[in-house]
Design brief:
By secondary structure, the chain is mostly helical. It has one domain. It is 75% helix and 0% strand. The protein is built from 15 helices and no strands.
């Protein structure tokens, strides 16, 4: 796919909210899968942004602490409809799972039993198909030559050898360095400028605010109440994690179980429920906040855990568009984008494939989902419903579940 788009950043807040609400209701499978859903909905179907600009944005968000997929969504909403669009994208993508998890924390336990577990299994197979589609499409656009294909292979090795977000960050850094050497070429015009409505001054203020909150909130806990303590704990968890997703769990455990706000059984039960939800894993914070302090605790925890990543993103965006038009930056981004493809490919195997595929029947279902998305151009929500229904039937009958 080329970078020709049918629209510029002149959309409406309502349009953004509807697009991301759809994603928030159907994007199962974790942050890597979310990037595949985003690509299909925003790049391929709605054509709000081109392929290479999307790859650049993904690479930038992978560099920054915070929930990478939510940062990409926030930036896409900001690009499309300004600050209202950014908030609409975050709300649409985040609130469906957050609300369900808060209800679960307050006693609405409905995720047990073979039928529910079967539906969850089907949704995991959807993630396999979606990530495979993303790897397929991005590889064609972002690794068109031997040099970049080689960078992608090295990125796969880094992601496999270095567990967690460290491997992803190292892979992107090495990809950018390799791009400076292997991917030089004529300066290409930026086919889609992404001038976000953020001044340099606002960007710098956001970076300062990030640092002040990180350093100052622990001091306020000495005189603040439960709300300040919650905000400090979840802000720190969101600020100190790269890549988001499962990487944040040890930090949340330390901030909630160790402090006595949440007992171990409740923590594990909430984590299990979160796996059944679409949208970002960071909504687990809403569950933990609700257990600790009801609805008000849920709101505080949810805002606090996302805020540091968004402050860093807004701080970086004013400088990003000018940077990506420079020759050396273009070479580095070619390498970084190739590394992103490698990271996606590694994640397709582990944890997406290994966490979902249990036998030959699962392989067939995942391949059917992939074919429906790639060759038959089926909307992702249809694939989600179909495989969820098949998974539910498998759970009800006991077929394929352990």
């Amino acid at each position: 796919m080329d970078d020709t788009t049918t629209s510029k950043n002149d959309g409406s807040v309502g349009e953004v909210f509807i697009a991301f609400l759809k994603l928030g209701l159907t994007s199962f499978g974790g942050p890597i899968a979310h990037l595949g859903y985003f690509r299909d909905e925003i790049v391929t179907r709605r054509r709000w942004i081109g392929e290479s600009a999307y790859g650049d944005l993904v690479a930038l968000c992978q560099f920054l602490p915070g929930p990478a997929s939510s940062q990409v969504g926030f930036a896409l909403g900001l690009w499309r409809a300004g600050w209202g669009g950014a908030l609409a994208a975050w709300a649409g993508f985040t609130l469906p799972s957050a609300i369900v998890l808060v209800l679960f924390a307050l006693g609405a336990s409905f995720l047990d039993g073979p039928l529910a577990q079967g539906v969850l299994h089907g949704l995991k197979l959807v993630a396999v198909a979606v990530v495979a589609q993303a790897v397929w499409g991005m590889a064609k656009s972002l690794t068109p030559d031997l040099q970049r294909a080689g960078i992608a292979l090295v990125a796969i090795a880094m992601a496999v050898l270095l567990a967690g977000s460290a491997g992803q960050v190292v892979a992107i850094v090495l990809g950018a360095v390799a791009g400076l050497v292997l991917c030089r070429g004529p300066v290409l015009p930026v086919t889609q400028a992404m001038r976000f409505p953020i001044s340099t001054r606002v960007g710098l203020l956001c970076l300062v605010a990030f640092g002040l909150l990180l350093a100052g909130l622990p001091l306020l806990t000495a005189v603040g109440g439960q709300g300040v303590n919650l905000f400090d704990a979840f802000y720190r968890a969101g600020a100190l994690v790269f890549g988001g997703g499962h990487v944040v769990l040890p930090l949340l455990d330390a901030e909630t179980v160790t402090t006595g706000w949440v007992n171990r059984d409740a923590f594990i039960a909430g984590y299990g429920a979160t796996q059944a939800m679409p949208g970002p894993l960071f909504t687990f914070a809403a569950y933990l906040g609700a257990v600790a302090d009801g609805w008000s605790g849920a709101v505080i925890a949810l805002v606090a855990i996302f805020l540091p990543g968004f402050l860093l993103l807004v701080g970086a965006l004013p400088f990003w568009d000018a940077l990506r038009g420079r020759p050396m930056a273009q070479a580095a981004m070619r390498g970084a984008n190739a590394a992103v493809v490698g990271i996606l490919a590694a994640a397709l195997y582990d944890p997406v494939w290994t966490g979902a595929v249990r036998g030959p029947l699962d392989i067939m279902l995942a391949l059917a989902g992939f074919a429906a998305l790639v060759f038959w151009r089926a909307p992702p929500w249809i694939v989600v419903l179909a495989l969820a229904a098949v998974g539910g039937a498998m759970g009800w009958s006991g077929l394929g579940l352990t």
